[in-house]
Amino acid sequence: MTYWRYIILVALVFAVSACCNNEDPILDDLRAVFVPQLPAHVEPMTIPDYNPMTKAKVQLGKMLFYDPILSLDSTISCSSCHDPNLAFSDPRPFSLGVGGATGLFPEQRRNAMALFNIQNDRFLFWDGAIFAEDGAFDELEIQSLKPILNEVEMINTLEEVNRRLKQDPVYVEQFEIAFQDTVKDIYIAMALASFERMLVSYETKYDLYFERGLDSTVFTEQEWRGFKVFFDEREGKLHAECFHCHGGPNLDDPGLTFRNNGLFPSNDPFGEDLGSFRIFGDEVGFKVPSLRNLSFTAPYMHDGRFQTLDEVLDFYQQGGDPNNINRDNLMRTMGFTDEEKADLKAFLLSLNDTAFVTNPELRP
Fold first, then answer.
1. With respect to CATH, is domain 205-356 assigned 3.30.230.10?
2. Where are the alpha helices (DSSP H) in 180-290?
3. In a structure prediction context, what are the per-residue pLDDT tens digits for the chain, which is 364 residues long?
């Protein structure tokens, strides 16, 4: 047993033995329901009724997120592909599973999306493969178990995970505190989803701009010029107008539209990735990711083809590949100058949230 797990066990035994009734203030605090507060310019967090947020669930979910016990050979954890130092993203173009496994399916050959501000996402994964079609479960509860079972990720079974967790006295105690019950599949999903809902990143100049009533002085002069390049529409001149696809407080697609930005040819050695077409049978497209924390989330695009932000801006300035028949009609050659490009880059870098990346409460 590692040192930190021993400390947790000792603390839990002491807490439970000190007060063995339901009026224990420590347990009451851990089990108290709360709703994480988000800034006023952000949509309030949606939490399913069957899985209200508690400190105990978040604490258990964090333990599970960082523990390789979930994988077949106990070598990788959720954090292996979602590094907290990198805004919970993966620096590799394609993530590797147990034993360095990769797969034949496109979702196994994509850059792992960063895990922040996903609390209200309707679709998860690049192609929207996880969505609450019948309303039976929230997306995060569904998603949280997928990597455990995936044949090239953790390659495990829920039966084996349950068996391991039931043999660990720390986890037995934690499940009892969080759910007042023994280890179960649904509780694993609920705990992981609870922790993932705490991965919120809203401490940037962009957020301060809204909090101060659209106060442009929170930006440097160059960042503010880049802000205008990003959001302005100029008649008679082709301009960036990035906000058409990257809008709202998260600077993603608030309409949850799957778009095709004209990437071609594919960086996938197995051929062109059909994206959302494989799930919904519509045009080939991908989820529009948030532009927050770009300094931490390289490489960029669903196939991780670009290593630098300059490469991304050059790609968009060219309007993508015109030979891609699925290219979104908003993609076209941009008319901004080199100076405007530098300004735009400065604004994008102002979207970094170092407080989120260094938050000790989100680390093991």
1. no
2. 185-197, 205-211, 221-231, 277-280
3. 444 444 444 444 444 444 344 578 999 999 999 999 999 999 999 899 999 999 999 999 999 999 999 999 999 999 999 999 999 999 998 888 888 776 555 555 688 889 999 988 877 776 666 554 444 445 789 889 989 998 888 999 999 999 999 999 999 999 999 999 999 999 999 999 999 999 999 999 999 999 999 999 999 999 999 999 998 766 545 456 788 888 889 998 866 677 878 787 655 555 566 666 555 556 667 788 999 999 999 999 888 889 999 999 998 888 877 777 777 777 777 777 899 999 999 999 999 999 999 999 999 8
Q: Output DSSP code: residue 123.
A: E
Q: Which residues of 212-247 are buried (b: 16+ CB within 10 A; e: fewer)?
A: eeeeeebbeebbbbbbbbbbeeeeeeebbbbeebbe
Task: Tell me the β-bridge partners of 355.
Answer: none
The Cα 249–Cα 171 span in angstroms is 37
pTM of the model: 0.86
The number of residues making up the chain comes to 364
61: Cβ contacts below 8 Å, ≥ 6 apart: 191, 192, 193, 194, 195, 196
- How do strand 258-259 and strand 130-131 relate by DSSP bridges? unpaired
> How many C-beta atoms lie closer than 10 Å to residue 9's C-beta?
18
Map out the domains of the chain as residue ranges: 3-200, 205-356
Q: Which CATH architecture has domain 3-200?
A: Orthogonal Bundle (1.10)
Under 8 Å between Cβ of 194 and 51: yes
